[in-house]
Specification:
Layout lengths: L13 E7 L10 H16 L7 E5 L5 H10 L5 E6 L3 H4 L6 H11 L6 E2 L6 H14 L3 E6 L10 H10 L4 E6 L4 E3 L16 H11 L21 H4 L2 H49 L7 H21 L1 H23 L17 H14 L10 H54 L10 H24 L1 H23 L4 H27 L8
Parallel strand pairs: 1-2, 1-5, 2-3, 3-4, 5-6
Antiparallel strand pairs: 6-7
Length: 529
Amino acid sequence: MADGGEAPGIALRLRVGVSGHRQLTAAHPGLVSEISKAVEYISEKLAVTPDIPLTVVSSLAEGADRLVADGVLDRDGARLEVVLPLPPDDYSTDFDTEESKTAFSLLLARDDRYDLVRTATSREHAYELAGRAVVDRSDVMIIIWDGAPPRGRGGTAEIREYALRSHRPVVWILVTADEARLVIDELPRAAEGTLPLNAANLQKLDRYNGEPTAADEAGEPPLRGLADTRPWLASAMPMIEHVHRYYVRADQVADRQQKRFRLMNRLLYVLAPLAVLIVAAQVVFAPSRQYLAWFEFGVLAVLTVLHLIARRAGWHARWISARYLAEQLRSQTFLGLTGILTIVTGAASGQREDEVSWTERAAAEVWLTRPRFDPPADPSLLVDVLYKHWIKDQQVYHRDTSRKYRQRSTVFQALSVGLFSVSTVAALLHSLGAGGTAARPFKWWDFLAIVIPALAGALSGYAAQRDYSRHAERSRLFGGFLDRALERLLDSRDLDAIQQATLVISRSMRDEATEWYSSVHTQELELPA
């Protein structure tokens, strides 16, 4: 996958989550070999390509968690990603022996970005949240389970059910007292060759990673200027800069492809009425000069070729997918400040062949590889930054966008009505024979009666294609939602409440971006009628 220098491309890893019984050991009959088979099946069959690197996602509990972690980490290029239910010192008190505690510490040292459940109401709740977080950030789960019903909150059976509800492929190793066996009949064969993305979506990501970017246009990361006056933000800068580098690429790619698409779109709506103007002029003013029709043919040929070039280049799809990705990354900086554990799911959507699914998986990769940040002890510090530098900016943007698009819709409607009115007057004057005689009629009325409706149609078609009214209303409604959501954030008094409020806002922003994508997705270049 290509790299864009200062604005890096996104390199995916296949994330393998694990959940299983804690009492298991490497001495259990057949277990280690069955884990090896499960990892091999994932790498050789489920992976979109056999050479994609693996990351094992684990809470490093005793038993299955560590056995699978060891099995995956034996492979070249493999990494470990840890989600802890409790702070390490507290968590290690659950381990039976000093040897177990040492093994935990050695494995934890292999992940310098581990995540910690911060908002649990009890120890059991923390284990449940950690188990769900492992599922949320995994592309596939290895479940080592005896097949028995759930025995407690956050246990293996419950996490397996959560994984299935979340549409994660599950590779099940059945364990009994005297054996371990990969359950062949329940292998997720429908997911083979699709993880972490299917081949079509991986090609789209490779194309995006290969887009050129300009390092000198990266700009300053958000909040850098505040770090001098807010010391707690200084330690957040590695996380902020990490996200910003990926945002720069998405933003630059989106801007460039949008400009190309818009330019081509306007050319098509200019060339179509130009062809009508040429043929009208030839028919009305120079009917004997048949060679002038070749000019009309030339314009129509250019129009057709430009349309084919634009469709083949995929400027429209490349624009909206990069913009959709950029909007997801824009929120990550501020969500990272709150210490939220999981904001996006893994790659369950990566099997769909559309522009949304690969961007969601790519955004998840950026989030999961970010440097971690511990939020400040005073929640009011977070609320102030989230409001002034995230939500307020979005409020202003949507308010201005709604007003701008409403004005454009009004202008295009007025122009179209005005031109059709002029065309009507021209047709009336032509019918009355104004400006000419029976022997020598005034030909300009004929010309205008043909050309002006073509111009009006082109303007109406362009305005309809841009769908100004719909976008204006969408921004107006979302601006109203942000006003209401802000009240909830300002009323937050602890970290949990802040996290919940920001998650609601972030998900709504993502839903709004999805609605924008769905709307603009239908506005591909078409030849004007």
